[in-house]
Amino acid sequence: MSIGKWIFGQREGIAEPTEVVAEPTAGELAACALADLNAAMVRPNPIPTSEMASLLLQSLCRSFKSDFGAIVWVTGPDRSRCAAAVGADPADLNQSPMTAGSSAGAPSLAETAESDRGTIYIPDTSNDPRWWKASAWQRGAGAIVAAPLRAAGRSTAVLFLGREAPASFKPAEVEAINVISMTAGLLLWMRLAEEQADGPLKQVTELNEARADFLIKVMHELRTPLAAIKASADMIHDLLAKEKAGSAQSKLLHYVTRNVERLNLLLSDLMDVVKMRDSGSTLNLEQLNVRAVLAQAVSAIAPIARQRGQTLQVEPPPSALSARLDRRRFEQILINLITNASNYCDDKGVIIVRSRQEGDNLVTEVIDNGSGVSQAEQEKIFEPFYRGQQPADRPAVAGSGLGLAIVKSLVELHSGAISV
Hints:
By secondary structure, the chain is an alpha/beta fold. It is 44% helix and 18% strand. It has helices at 26-41, 49-63, 90-93, 109-116, 171-196, 204-241, 248-278, 290-307, 327-344, 403-413, and strands at 2-8, 68-73, 82-86, 120-122, 143-151, 154-163, 285-289, 311-315, 322-326, 350-358, 361-368, 417-419.
């Protein structure tokens, strides 16, 4: 039996809460884009450079929510030609300001980005002389980011990401695109070098495993200084507790501790994303008793719900209900969903967890009587770093903003779907 539809419940008829969204930093955006890029590049066999360029572009357009994008070669026989396009016709792009110079002799944006060796951001193409009008390019004003894809001291191509709305890229997004372009440039350069070499090609899977291993090691290394910072802050806080409780120093130390904990949580979630996406094709599937796993996951969250005065109700499925699942990941799905419900449920609220069989599918529901999820927000809550709406009279929910994004990826690894 495969996992079918997952439902994250809501209660209707509740007034719309006030939206609280924590703006992600450039580092967070780049880390998330890198995890998605890592997953997109996993293939059992080496792929042609043209296919790699297309996969790179599709991944980056998703990560940075771009309306259109392109990768333009700035080296080799296809110089100034479009290698890949999203949301646009490559033939049109080959006659646009991205790839072609103007009749007045101005260089193309690809040539400018290559020569400047830096990311170019045009907030409004209608008011920038670098974006000349081309009859083949029918788009109106918008925002364009051009980032050279460099490796081994030279540019291989230039990445373009665009949005229809002017000035729609935030500074953190532009900085993140600049960071991620380094990885994209290295991938393209390595692939070109492999194609040009006459020996055996390296397996793309091995390259991705090495990259994932590097990321995990870096994240582990970051945890060591964070642990030292937290321990030091806790010691100073204890020393000040008796004499200066509630002082400015004490509040600052509390702020430091809280943000160290947030960074630790973010690192844990990012490691989950990298490990999960890198080994997504090797689920450890086994026939599981759904009732037993459900009880184990609920027992892990029960103390938190109790502390908040919440009632955690389990409607146990039939004892014979079973499904082929990865035990650890199925449990993580349940824990993340129940934790999210507890975070957004009212104090002394009710959370219901239940599973049942529908045809050949296993349907699991987590329902709470919190403030609900608006129609406009339902498509966003599974995006990385998105924070759900929170009533104005309630404190902001702590967390990395990756919990539901991880759930969605895990469910899809089981060939399932999740919805609100």
